[in-house]
Specification:
Blueprint: H1 4-20, H2 23-27, E1 31-33, E2 41-44, E3 57-61, H3 73-82, E4 86-87, H4 109-122, E5 127-130, E6 148-152, H5 159-167, E7 169-171, E8 179-182, E9 188-191, E10 195-199
Parallel strand pairs: 4-5
Antiparallel strand pairs: 1-3, 2-3, 5-6, 6-10, 7-8, 8-9, 9-10
Amino acid sequence: MRSTLQTVLFIGACLVADVLGDWRCLGAGGKCQYDLSPSAMSRRGPEGLCNGPSARRCCLPAGREENAERLTNAEALQILRANGMTWSSTGGCNDRNVRSCTSFTGMRRATLVGLVAFKHASKCNIVVTGGTETGHSSGEYSHSKGYKVDIRYYGVNDCVLNFVRRNFNQISNRSDGAMQWRDGSRNTYARESNHWDITYY
């Protein structure tokens, strides 16, 4: 029979696991909880933003759409620098309307929060090579809509590749043949010839 101390430790461990897995909801400005409180939070976010069972959902502040907060280029660069990441572009620019630039204008904060979490979990060198600039494929979860980010791929000894292989589930190849992995929050990491195409939902 489980002792009272064992029960307390078990519950405590579960609560800690829940909190540590809540970064996607927190990054979107929400709060993870089991019992929704309409007086404090009015919108119920999608599943997968909070750790734990499906009943544990992300509640977003009244008047705020799910993951809707968009960043300026300057805000995004500040977050990248603060977390030891850099960016690069063939044109050396950040104009969203020029395909040779790398722009973060209009990127979802939740997307960058996802990349920050990945950086700290993997401890890899992250160089962003693609953001919201023109020239990428369109779609519901596209670069232009702020869901995708490209980071540099360094070849067979790539730190990201090694981390992804060890920790994520490989899924079917993309229609263009790119190998894909999915993390525990159902974000996808597609390995292209010279970069990773990452989608944070």
